[in-house]
Design a protein that fits this description.
By secondary structure, the protein is of the alpha/beta class. The protein folds into 2 domains: 208 residues, 3-Layer(aba) Sandwich (Rossmann fold), CATH 3.40.50; 36 residues, no CATH class. The protein contains 9 helices and 7 strands; from the N terminus they run E-H-E-H-E-H-E-H-E-H-H-E-H-H-H-E. The radius of gyration is 18 Å and the shape is globular. The structure holds nicotinamide-adenine-dinucleotide.
Length: 262
């Protein structure tokens, strides 16, 4: 089945790199006009130029901090003005923070919840009214299997992502009759810059030998014996963002090499 997005406008937060950029690539190559919204405005613009050249589609980069309501509403307004009303919203912007629960501060929790839970919520509030009135919309939120299983050292990230799952399912129930679907893609460890940054920190803390032992034990819990690649995660995103997925809503699709089978 070939997925096409001709005539559609897609907005991807966290689209400057990683899974967000890979998703944007699939959507643009499928014919969508694309906005890459990212807190790193320079990288968003560079990535937009690169993707426009590669896909031949209109692609814009917009600087926005998803945790700030005024940024989000300005960003949504700019995207609609430049590309038209948004049909597809992919929420990929996130941070990761690696700390034991008892070492975490209220400020750590607030920052995480602001970006990883309030971020998608603010974007949905900005985009949903138009989707509902146009009777079409596809929203795909990136979560994490840590939200479903819990994960040591990631308590506040996992809690924020669990909130995103509950948010998407609840809103899916409210807007189903308006032709708007909301679904969740829940990746396992995927080789992106985010993961690489976390690995580099661990490697520096543990030393090479201990780090390699740890990597071997991480890989053992993946029945597929390897970590994921962004391209493998984004084919799930593209399907849920397509017209063909109109009768799928409020669902979680884990793309995780079999790491968890909840
Ligand atoms: N890579 C993995 O192993 C993995 C595993 C599970 C879930 N995920 C989830 O997948 C999504 C994408 O992850 P990734 O690995 O591509 O990450 P990444 O760090 O490579 O990309 C995230 C992007 O979000 C942007 N961003 C961060 N804070 C922002 C803010 N306040 N406002 C706007 N943009 C902001 C960053 O600048 C970056 O470009 C995230 O939601 C992440 O939680 C990733």
């Amino acid at each position: 089945m070939e997925l096409r997005f001709d005539g559609k406008v897609a907005l991807i937060t966290g689209g400057a790199r990683g899974i967000g950029y890979a998703a944007a690539t699939l959507l643009a190559e499928g014919g969508a006009k694309v906005a890459l919204a990212d807190v790193n405005g320079e990288r968003a613009e560079d990535s937009a130029r690169k993707l426009a050249q590669r896909s031949g589609m209109e692609v814009i980069g917009v600087r926005t901090d998803v945790s700030r309501e005024e940024d989000v509403s300005a960003m949504a307004g700019e995207v609609v003005r430049k590309l038209g009303p948004v049909d597809i919203f992919v929420s990929s912007a996130a941070i990761l923070d690696d700390k034991l629960f008892l070492e975490s501060s209220l400020a750590d929790w607030r920052r995480m919840i602001d970006i990883c839970l309030y971020g998608p919520m603010l974007c949905m509030r900005a985009l949903l009214p138009e989707m509902v009135s146009r009777k079409y919309g596809r929203i795909v939120c990136l979560a994490s299997d840590s939200a479903r299983l819990g994960q040591a050292r990631l308590s506040y990230y996992a809690a924020a992502k669990a909130g995103v799952i509950a948010l998407a399912k609840s809103v899916a129930q409210e807007v189903g009759k308006s032709g708007v679907t909301l679904n969740i893609v829940s990746p396992g460890a995927t080789n992106t810059e985010l993961r690489q940054e976390r690995e580099n920190l661990m490697r520096a803390e543990m030393g090479e030998e201990k780090y390699q032992r740890r990597m071997q034990s991480v890989l053992k819990v993946y029945p597929t014996g390897r970590l994921g690649e962004p391209a493998e995660v984004v084919s799930a995103i593209a399907y849920l963002a397509s017209e063909q997925a109109g009768w799928i809503t409020g669902q979680i699709l884990s793309v995780n090499g079999g790491f968890a089978m909840p």
